[in-house]
Each structure stands twice: as C-alpha cells, then as structure tokens.
C-alpha cells in the first residue's frame, strides 16, 4: 500500500466509525443476502458481533502503517475462522459485502481511489488470515 492509500483508508474510516453500528447492520444484511447460508455460522447476538467486527476493523485501520504489529492477531483470527467453518472462497464474499457497505456509508466519498485502497487493505488482511487458516487446517 502506498502512504496515500493508507491515509485514504484512515480518512474514510473516520467517516464510517461514528455510524459503525448501522454500518455493521448493513454489512451483515448484505453478507446474508449474498449467501443466506452464512447466517448459520453466527450463533450469538448480532449486535455484539457487529461491535466485534467494527472493533477489529478499527484496529486494522489504525495499524495500517505498522501492519507487522497486528499480523499475529490477524493470523489468530484466521485460525479461529477455521473452527467456524469459513473457507477460502468465503473471503471474497465478505470483501463484496464490506465494499458495498463502505459505499453505502460513505456515499460520494467512496471514490474509485478509496475503493481501490480498501480492496488492497482487505486483500492484505484476508491473505494473512487465509494463510494462517490453511496452516491450522493442515
């Protein structure tokens, strides 16, 4: 990621953070629309799940300029997702739901450049999770 992309992700996240509860609802609504089978993966309270998602995203975004500090936590998250039944191909669906949610929350501020920066961010983190998950499953 370029420094400009890091700044763009941080700046756009700052606009989403105040509406994180609504963003989480939009995200999971879209995720379940894209694949209704995912609902079975979530056993607990979705409001709490949304808070955990937003907290994790906040940690990732605030650490973008020092990603090495969060790699162990991201790897652990990937390993935990094996136990939930998450497969490699599921990460692309999550990306689709996340980018859609950001577009809804940011409106015109979700420019092509912002979408590209977020895509790189998500792909970077998802790749770490997938690699750790595959090591866990092996």
Give a written overview of the molecule:
The chain is an all-alpha fold and 138 residues long. The chain has one domain (3-137): Globin-like. Helices cover 74% and strands 0% of the residues. It has six helices and no strands. α2 crosses α5 (90-106) and α5 packs antiparallel against α6. The protein starts with a helix and ends with a helix.
CATH class: Mainly Alpha
Q: Largest sheet, described in full?
A: none
CATH architecture identity? Orthogonal Bundle
Low-pLDDT residue intervals, each spanning 5 or more residues: none
Query: What is the number of domains?
Result: 1
CATH superfamily: Globins
What is the number of beta strands?
A: 0
Note the beta-strand portion: under 5%
Structural class: mainly alpha
As a percent range, the share of helical residues equals over 70%
Round the Cα radius of gyration to an integer and report it. Answer: 14 Å
Order of helices and strands: HHHHHH
The overall average pLDDT, rounded, is 94
Termini Cα gap: 30 Å
Number of helices: 6
Q: Which term fits the overall shape? A: globular
At CATH level 3, the topology is Globin-like
